[in-house]
Amino acid sequence: MKKTMIISPADSVGVALAALKKGGTAEGITLLDDIEKGHKFALRDIKRGEEVIKYNEIIGRATADIAAGSHVHCHNMSTNLSGTLAYSYRRREIVPMTGLRSRMVSVYERKNGEVGIRNELWVIPMVGCVNAQARRIAEEFLKKHGGLRGIDGVFAYSHPYGCSQIGEDHERTRMTLQRMAKHPNCGGALVLGLGCENNRMDVFQETLGEYDKERVRFLVAQEVGDEIAAGVALLEELYTAAKDDVRTERDISCLKVGLKCGGSDGLSGITANPLVGRFSDYIAGIGGTTVLTEVPEMFGAEQLLMDRAKDEATFGKIVRLINNFKEYYRKHDQPVYENPSPGNKAGGITTLEDKSLGCTQKSGFGEVCDVLFDGDALTARGLNLLNGPGNDMVAVTNLAAAGCHIILFTTGRGTPFGGFVPTIKISTNSGLAERKPNWIDFDAGKIAAGESFEDKLTELIHLVVETVNGKQTANERAGARDIAIFKTGVTL
Q1: Are residues 281 and 407 in the same domain?
Q2: Are residues 285 and 192 in the same domain?
Q3: What whole-number distance in Å separates Cα of residue 375 and Cα of residue 371?
Q4: For residue 139, what are the domain limits?
Q5: Does residue 240 sit in the same domain as residue 160?
């Protein structure tokens, strides 16, 4: 097994693929420090103020003289980012993947022509005040029915919002819940209100747009005597409508796949993220759709994405995406570049550039076809960028609300959570996969041990096909299904 890696010949740092001891050698250099797995070491002398190179890109600057063989991390380097940057459109030639072979998947066809990969009943609270009632309705329905035929489960999705919100927060809450009610993975949705919240049921229905009236029901708790019994009765109607749905064969290009990472480490940009990037290129190459979000974790790598914009209009959208999020930070008097997290740093990531250059590898090398802002839904096939923060729960909720059927989630530190669509957890290192098999669905760490990207991509495609066809992910088996709605304003 290789113990070190030099990602690009131009790099001034190497990465430890295993723990290295002081006094040992790595890449022909005597190590002057212990180097933890995922951390960086200097391949040559780096002078104070000199740019540090990884991925053949600048990841920061040295804050002290760094001798060859030394540990390179927060104690001797820092970000190179500050202020607002100027961008230019420099279209990069895109070389498409060749020799792609499509697959068939089994999905549920919906009346509007969309497809779903699950056939579930969802109870969706309009306001946090009825969270407990939503859970009770789902529980009582399941008690009554025991084993269910024809559907994949009944779930209630709690959240704390829907009242005392104004402006963008109020609109975003309503829009997110509306997108859930019409999501193709949902065979039937019961929308549950209280009756006095500002997320009013009449406005919710008026602005919902086209929907299958056989598959959505509405209940206001204050308007009935026993909201639990009334809710169960409405779930009965939805169950009757959904239980005879059957899967049908469709080409895998029908999928919309979200790309996300969380708890990244020093191997994220070497194993799992580049693997997911190859998957994105594969799906886009056969006519499918992928979506990358986490705008703050594009900072420092955004020009690389801009260079892949399909045209100047899309380039302009990416610039707006980046600058709007920086303005959001400044509006709240917060530093734009306050990242990575403590867990990221413990795993070997030093600066935001270091994190972003690894994070954006999930997008592969394909053309950026479109950029989605609040209120936008997926329309363009290929790679899309989506507005939103890096927070795991919020980002996965945003991806699913935009229309993604499934999420590929890479992690070096590990996390048990999942969204309201299946969330495939991909470990960056094999130690995590071995330690947390109840969290992790796929081990990309074997790439660091010498397995090829081509073989692992074939395995990952196979797992995605199995999951689409009904195999439960670790988060589904554990009942880890949550939503988190992005909040930017005041609470009344």
Answers
A1: yes
A2: no
A3: 12
A4: 120-244
A5: yes
Say how far apart CA 169 and CA 167 lie, in whole Å.
Answer: 6
Same domain, 229 and 308: no
Identity of residue 400: A
Beta-carbon contacts of 380 under 8 Å, excluding residues fewer than 6 positions away, are 289, 369, 370
The CA-atom distances, in angstroms, between 107 and each of 152, 249, 250 are: 13, 6, 7
| 213/255 same-domain check | no
Sheet holding 51-54, edge to edge: 51-54, 57-62, 77-78
CA distance 407 to 423: 5
Same structural domain, 138 and 31: no
Whether residue 204 has pLDDT greater than 80: yes
Same domain, 70 and 18: yes
Closest CA to 390 of 355, 442, 436: 355
Please, which pLDDT band fits residue 409 given cuts at 50, 70 and 90?
very high
Q: Is residue 485, in this structure, part of any structural domain at all?
A: no
Query: Are the CB atoms for 81 and 299 separated by under 8 Å?
Result: yes
Q: Are 29 and 43 in contact (CB under 8 A)?
A: yes
Give per-residue pLDDT as tens, 52-76. Answer: 999 999 999 999 999 999 999 999 9
d(CA 318, CA 485): 23
Question: For the chain, what is the radius of gyration of the CA atoms?
Answer: 24
Strands 368-372 and 382-386, sheet pairing: parallel
Closest by Cα among 372, 375, 371 to 168 = 375
Number of domains observed in the structure of the chain: 3
Tell me, yes or no, whether 136 and 56 share the same domain: no
Residues 6+ apart with CB under 8 A from 311: none
Give the model confidence (pLDDT) of 70-121 as tens digits: 999 999 999 988 777 789 898 888 877 888 899 999 999 999 999 999 999 9
Q: Rounded to whole angstroms, how far apart are CA atoms 74 and 246? A: 54
Evaluate whether residue 192 is within a structural domain: yes
